[in-house]
Design a protein that fits this description.
This protein is an alpha/beta fold and 140 residues long. Helix content is 55%, strand content 14%. It is built from 8 helices and 5 strands, in the order βααβααβαααββα. Helix 3 runs antiparallel to helix 4. The longest helix is centred in the first third of the chain and has 18 residues. The chain is globular, with a radius of gyration of 15 Å.
């Protein structure tokens, strides 16, 4: 069975700034479908220049790297996540209602979320953190 996983915005940022997340996405790209709601790319594009400026770096290469991830991480359309919005909001509760699109995407595609965000825990959607996600991506 072909595996699918929702990628949280913090994972997109890690894939741009670091090595491990990007390496996992590239290594498993042929066997795993990576998805995210559009808001993840928007959030990452908003935060990456701030991070670059704090580091005294040029944000342009970071945004270019983020754009290249679009060839591997497919956007789940708003009309798909929107169908699941009320259920996702109920499941995420008061922890962080802005994260509902990720829960909705996971429900719509019946797959887990790769995240470092504890707000998803207890939402009824499986989650994988970066230190363990390779187990899921390998299919073990």
């Amino acid at each position: 069975m072909h595996r699918r996983i929702i990628v949280d915005a913090n994972i997109l940022i890690r894939a741009v700034l670091g090595v491990r997340a990007r390496e996992l996405i590239v290594r498993h790209g042929a066997d795993v479908s990576f998805f995210t709601p559009e808001v993840a790319f928007l959030d990452a594009a908003r935060y990456l220049p701030v991070i670059a400026m704090k580091r005294g770096a040029d944000p342009v290469p970071l945004i270019s790297s983020l754009d290249r991830l679009r060839s591997v991480v497919e956007v789940v359309p708003d009309d798909v996540t929107g169908v699941w919005k009320s259920i996702a909001l109920e499941r995420i509760g008061g922890r962080d209602p802005m994260d509902w699109p990720f829960v909705a995407a996971a429900l719509a595609l019946d797959c887990p979320i790769w995240t470092e965000d504890n707000d998803f825990f207890g939402s009824g959607v499986p989650t994988w953190t970066s230190d363990r996600v390779d187990i899921y991506l390998r299919g073990d």
